[in-house]
Design goal:
The complex is a heterodimer of chains A (126) and B (108). In chain A, strand 9 and strand 10 form a beta hairpin. Chain A is built from no helices and 11 strands. Chain A is an all-beta fold and 126 residues long. In chain A, the strands form 2 sheets. In chain A, strands 2, 4, 5, 6, 9, 10 and 11 form a 7-stranded mixed sheet that branches. By secondary structure, chain B is mainly β. Helix content of chain B is 0%, strand content 45%. Chain B is built from no helices and 9 strands. The radius of gyration of chain B is 13 Å and the shape is globular. The relative contact order of chain B is 0.34.
């Protein structure tokens, strides 16, 4: 049974960098799939942040791309999120999730999230 | 960027059928996925690829997708189905995930 667990500081100061890690158990990241991050501000909806393959190939949300870096450590079977220059608007519950792929027409690939971590709350405040 | 539109809320009596819509430009040409999120919990996938159900999800949950609207249908609604529901697609033009704004399902 695949399980994901987020970890990291619950409080980050404005203008600093938010850093989170997602530990994967029950499945080797090196075996495949994309792995990614989604966040949810208090009382609001879900926002997709980005995802990474074990090779290091990444996809990022265009609205966050300039501030986001996702990396993978296959030796530790985990992947990480860094979000720079944070503001109060980055306060949210951050989830990590496994991304499954579906093949579409003309070789298009679509992704959805089939396994989620429980989430970790990050507050941006001085 | 691709936009998905959901009604903020849907209400239904127990035992009735709930239909939650997700609108998007030519969404029928995309693969749509649905997540259920109960308060204080992580989202759970309930329908993927328009109409497929993950193992463990009751047959009461079904999906369809055509034209500019995808629909999640919950038959014989139970009190335990009360939750927020989100649709999601992959925007292949810019390779990123997109969620709808979410719909709160209230069981009367």
């Amino acid at each position: 049974q695949v399980q994901l667990q987020e970890s990291g500081p619950g409080l980050v100061k404005p203008s600093e960098t938010l850093s989170l890690t997602c530990a994967v158990s029950g499945y080797s990241i090196s075996s495949g799939y994309y792995w990614g991050w989604i966040r949810q501000p208090p009382g609001k909806g879900l926002e997709w942040i980005g995802s990474i393959y074990h090779s290091g190939s990444t996809y990022y949300n265009p609205s966050l791309k300039s501030r986001v870096t996702i990396s993978v450590d296959t030796s530790k079977n985990q992947f990480s999120l860094k979000l720079s220059s944070v503001t109060a608007a980055d306060t949210a519950v951050y989830y990590c999730a496994r991304h499954r792929e579906i093949g579409g027409v003309a070789g298009t690939i679509y992704y959805y999230m089939d396994v989620w971590g429980k989430g970790t709350t990050v507050t941006v405040s001085s | 960027s691709y936009v998905l539109t959901q009604p903020p809320s849907v209400s239904v009596a127990p035992g009735q059928t709930a239909r939650i819509t997700c609108g998007g430009n030519n969404i029928g040409s995309k693969s749509v996925h649905w997540y259920q999120q109960k308060p204080g919990q992580a989202p759970v996938l309930v329908v993927y690829d328009d109409s497929d159900r993950p193992s463990g999800i009751p047959e009461r949950f079904s999906g369809s997708n055509s034209g500019n609207t995808a629909t999640l249908t919950i038959s014989r609604v139970e009190a335990g189905d009360e939750a927020d529901y989100y649709c999601q697609v992959w925007d292949s033009s810019s390779d990123h995930g997109v969620f709808g704004g979410g719909t709160k399902l209230t069981v009367l």
